[in-house]
Amino acid sequence: MLAQEDINHFDERAQLEEQLDDLLKLNIDLQHKKLMVFKERIVRYRNYLLTFLYHRKVPPDNNASERAMRTYKVKQKVSGLFRSNEGAQAFAVIRSVIDTTIKNKKNVMKALAMIPNLPKTE
Questions:
Q1: N or C: which end of the chain has fewer CB within 10 A?
Q2: pLDDT in tens, the chain (122 residues)
Q3: In this structure, are residues 103 and 57 in contact, taking their beta carbons and an 8 Å threshold?
Q4: φ and ψ at 121, to 5 degrees?
Q5: What is the C-alpha separation between 4 and 33, in angstroms, rounded?
Q6: SS3 breakdown of the chain: % helix, strand, coil, rounded to 5?
């Protein structure tokens, strides 16, 4: 038997999808080309756009992704670009390990100590 919270979630999801359907049925004036392209993209990627409605662990926004990218942008602004591809690759591996470790609530120092044992990538 479904809990009331789940029933409410299904109702809200159906209502949101119905509202989106209604919006997508509206005719757009040909003068608004950017809006037409936007509408076409929503139609094309609709299943991906509404993933968060079906999977509760998927956030409705991409804030976490943008926060993850912030470190790279700060590095770029403070010290400029990397001097070599190897340096950029090393930074990416280290940041990836740190970010993943923090996200999984693990010990960052232990994870960093494992980096020298990682298989080399080409």
A1: C
A2: 556 666 677 888 889 999 999 999 999 898 999 999 999 999 999 888 888 888 888 888 878 778 777 877 787 777 777 788 888 888 888 888 888 899 899 999 998 898 788 787 66
A3: no
A4: -105, 155
A5: 43
A6: 70, 0, 30
Q: Report how far residue 76's alpha carbon sits from residue 82's, in angstroms, rounded to the nearest whole number.
A: 8
Secondary structure (3-state) at 19: helix
DSSP string, 25-74: HS---TT-HHHHHHHHHHHHTHHHHTHHHH-TTS-SS-HHHHHHHHHHHH
Going by C-alpha positions, the residue among 49, 58, 61, 54 that lies closest to residue 12 is 54
